[in-house]
Amino acid sequence: MCRSIKTLRPPAIPEDATEEEIRAAALQYVRKVSGFRAPAAHNREVFEHAVDVVAKATTELLAGLEVRGGAQRAS
C-alpha cells in the first residue's frame, strides 16, 4: 500500500482526522490505484470524482469505527 497514507484514527492521531487529512489520504489512494500522479485533462473529472467518493467512504468508516476499550466515534 502507499506509504504516504497514514492511519487516521486514534490512537495513531490524537484527535479526529481533519477533512484535509482525509482528502490527502483519498488522493494518495486514487493516485496509487490509477497509476497517475496527476490525471490528463480528459481523465480529470473521473479522477476527482474518485477522490471525492473515497474521501466520503473514509469519513463514514472513521465515524463508524469503535476503538477497542473506547466509545464509538462521532465526526
Structural class: mainly alpha
Mean of residue pLDDT? 86
Q: Span between N and C termini? A: 26 Å
Instruction: Please count the beta strands (DSSP E, at least 2 residues each).
Output: 0
- Extract low-pLDDT stretches: none
Helix content: 40-55%
Global shape: elongated
Instruction: Tell me the fraction of residues in β-strands, as a range.
Output: under 5%
**What's the total helix number?**
2
Supply Rg: 14 Å
Instruction: Give, in order, the helices and strands.
Output: HH
The biggest beta sheet, please?
A: none
Outline the secondary-structure elements:
Blueprint: H1 19-34, H2 44-64
Helix pairs in contact: 1-2
Word description of this protein:
The protein is mainly alpha-helical and 75 residues long. The chain has a domain at 19-64. The chain is 49% helix and 0% strand. The protein is built from 2 helices and no strands. Helix 1 (19-34) crosses helix 2 (44-64).
List keywords for this structure.
single chain; 75 residues; mainly alpha; 2 helices; 49% helix; 0% strand; DUF2277 domain-containing protein
Brief rundown of the structure:
With 75 residues, the chain is mostly helical. Helix content is 49%, strand content 0%.
